Amino acid sequence: PQAIRLADYAPPNWLVNEVQLTFRLAPRATRVLSRIRFRPNPEAGGRAFFLHGEHLKLIRASVDGAEISPRLVDGGLEADVPDAPFTWEAEVEIDPEANTALEGLYLSNGMYCTQCEAEGFRRITFYPDRPDVMAPFTVRIEGPEPVLLSNGNPTASGAGWAEWTDPWPKPAYLFALVAGDLVALEDSFTTMSGREVTLKLWVRPGDEHKTEFAMEALKKSMRWDEEVYGREYDLDIFQIVAVSDFNMGAMENKGLNIFNTSAVLASPDTSTDANFERIEAIVAHEYFHNWTGNRITCRDWFQLSLKEGLTVFRDQSFTADMRPGGVSRIEDVMALRGRQFREDNGPLAHQVQPDSFVEINNFYTATIYEKGAEVIRMLKTLVGDAAYRDALDLYFARHDGEACTIDDWLKVFEDATGRDLAQFRLWYKQAGTPRLDVTEDWDGANYTLTFRQHMPATPGQNEKKPMVIPIATGLLGPNGDEVVPTTVLEMTEAEQSFTFEGLAARPVPSILRGFSAPVILNRETSPEERAFLLAHDTDPFNKWEAGRALAKDVLIAMITGEEPPLAAYLGALAAMLRDEGQSPAFRALALRLPGEDDIAQTLFDANVTPDPARIHDAAETLRQEVAEHLQDMLPRLAAECVVAEPFAPTGEQAGQRALALEVLKLTTRLDGGKAAAAMFESAGNMTLSLGALGCLLDAEKGEDALAAFAAKWQGDALVMDKWFMMQVVHAAPEKAAATAEALTAHPAFNMKNPNRFRAVFGALAMNAAGFHHASGKGYDLLADWIIRLDPLNPQIAARMSSAFETWKRYDADRQAQIRAALERIKASENLSRDTGEMVGRILA
Ligand code: HT7
Ligand code: ZN
């Protein structure tokens, strides 16, 4: 398949004035009638008329009322049309029931729903399915389903039909339709200008009790966007629909967001604190897209991070405001390192603004989303809060209603701040994670930090230029006082020094506070200094980072056979836990060890071939050491974390429960699972119940609890996803593949449901020592199932193949096994463009 290139962008030949659609719903043969007013685009280079269309049966077509026979070509149709505005009409037939790819119009549990981003609308009707063609839509839906929904405001309805009108011009990827037997939680919101907006959250009957939390999150998001960005909602109604078969988390369709049930339904009995936090963030994310994505959209898919990076940055800022204490920043960075740094370090590394792609669905990545958000965070750090807000105001004023580029975005910042952002633009165009080496110098009064930046080669990019790196730095005096508050050092050269003058004593630096740039910081530091920062740093991120770095030093030394700084680590950890000034949420995060995948990458960077089994053993040994060292403190800590009040999904209570579970994990190593069994019995919420189950599985004493859990929750698909996932994540390395395989034979396993598929195979990939077990069984099993899934759902199959992206880190035997697995996928018959591209890039 041919690559699509940014350099080949050409404006559309035809623009659309308005779209009228009629849907006659039927599971195997839905008819879609379209009436589209086209006008020539004065900025286009030609008048050739092409409409995208895939998996469509054309029944008839006409131009200005005259029947025509368009030429059906690869990916759509061509027709001869007048050199002036005209009306296109067509009728097509589609088969929602056969649509297992979950793109376009499909059926989920008997309910019709759509997913059009990125290129799903072309599976609904013939259309210029590109984001720079924007138009108002009117949609009439005919069907026996009691609830018939589309974008915009309801304009008419009768028995068996409903009409919706969306006055805001939008690209086709934001189109949505839902029809089924649904019930709604209703509420309302008064906007800052006093308009009343109806809010509806639609679910299947029986799920009503899981809707309240998301509704509250929606109202908080609407208020926050008004207060922080000055953005007001712009229709009479905002609706969310929960769907159980969905490829990603949620979709920001104009006025009619569609959500994966896992990203919206919540109750204390069935959802963990992490679920609540994720739901709040996703509800906010999709809502925020109304301005950053919908009102101002992307010119083409190379600009995807324009909406996604910005909207992730906005949802992260929202979460930080809703859950203060600096903890959400630590969680964001953990996710960034776990997914985006991993991507950057392997064959799938790509720019925040790629130059080419084969299948756009493969580019909804951590780099586009999370690194894109980091880039915006850096921009804000560099220009300052006030100038950032000015620039955003200018962005909305200048580009409302347009389909824009990342260059448009940077130009707004240049115009609003007077800064030249040519060098900053490299963050969009250079793939890879910069390494930042630091050395220091002290002359008795002046302290100098010297930074050297370098960036490893990534596919197709060997040479890299120096970037602008904002390095937020503070200095601590020997007694732990802050002698220089946070200052942003602006690095622009390959090597650059910064001097702090006139200090009374040699300071301890706290570098990259708040993780002010997405880089890997390398600095030779003693265990004592790390312990000092864990005790005294005023920046919550760097405080946590010091403990994590110390834990990493211990693990790496254990693996490479050097003397680990164990005493320093255990002492620092105990001191941190005794410090009641630290929130339970912070202490819980500080107790967690770095992930095994993170250790593997660090070893690889240090030219040591990582052995997943050894890494796992080292982590197990260290956890045991920690448990024994903290033994005397654990009962007191456990008592401290008991939540006396009724369950509430607040950050505060979540922090207490998180610490309680970290303590339980350590206690399980000492009591063989007694406390965990008691917790499992008495837990009044899913967070503690699942945490206790995890401890029991780790202690290989989970059989009874698993059976009880399944008996209780067999009717709840989202909870059963957890049941599947836990068994694989907590399987011993030698049993992980067999456990996953056995679960695929369970009657409740359904490969067509992305949540269930991910619960088993996403979990297998997460169990690093299990997936990379020397037997190669993990690789073979995943390859088998990618091959089986690909014809049904290429998007998910392709995504799952990224589990292999780290293969070049490992020893020759593992590399040979993974290569064989990838070659087998590659050779399978009729492999999709999605999976073909991913496997090709991983193997290259
Ligand atoms: N903008 C959306 C991205 C998306 C998607 C969502 C659901 C299913 C398939 C999808 N393909 C692309 C989600 C978001 O970023 O908000
Ligand atoms: Zn998004």
UniProtKB/TrEMBL annotation:
Annotated SUPFAM superfamilies: Leukotriene A4 hydrolase N-terminal domain, Metalloproteases ('zincins'), catalytic domain
InterPro entries: Aminopeptidase_N-like_N (IPR045357), Aminopeptidase_N-like_N_sf (IPR042097), PepN_Ig-like_sf (IPR038438), Peptidase_M1 (IPR001930), Peptidase_M1_dom (IPR014782), Peptidase_M1_pepN (IPR012779), Peptidase_M1_pepN_C (IPR024601), Peptidase_M1_pepN_C_sf (IPR037144)
The keyword Hydrolase appears for this protein: yes
Keywords assigned by UniProt, alphabetized: Aminopeptidase, Hydrolase, Metal-binding, Metalloprotease, Protease, Zinc
Ranges of residues in domain Peptidase M1 membrane alanine aminopeptidase: 213-424
CDD domains found in the cross-reference section: M1_APN
Any coiled-coil regions, as ranges: none
Domain Aminopeptidase N-like N-terminal: 99-174
Enzyme Commission designation: 3.4.11.2
Reactions this protein catalyses: Release of an N-terminal amino acid, Xaa-|-Yaa- from a peptide, amide or arylamide. Xaa is preferably Ala, but may be most amino acids including Pro (slow action). When a terminal hydrophobic residue is followed by a prolyl residue, the two may be released as an intact Xaa-Pro dipeptide
Required cofactor names: Zn(2+)
Chain ranges of the Peptidase M1 alanyl aminopeptidase C-terminal domain: 528-844
MF-aspect GO terms: aminopeptidase activity
Enzyme class: hydrolase
Domain Peptidase M1 alanyl aminopeptidase Ig-like fold: 432-523
Record-stated family: Belongs to the peptidase M1 family.
Protein name: Aminopeptidase N
Origin organism lineage: Bacteria, Pseudomonadati, Pseudomonadota, Alphaproteobacteria, Rhodobacterales
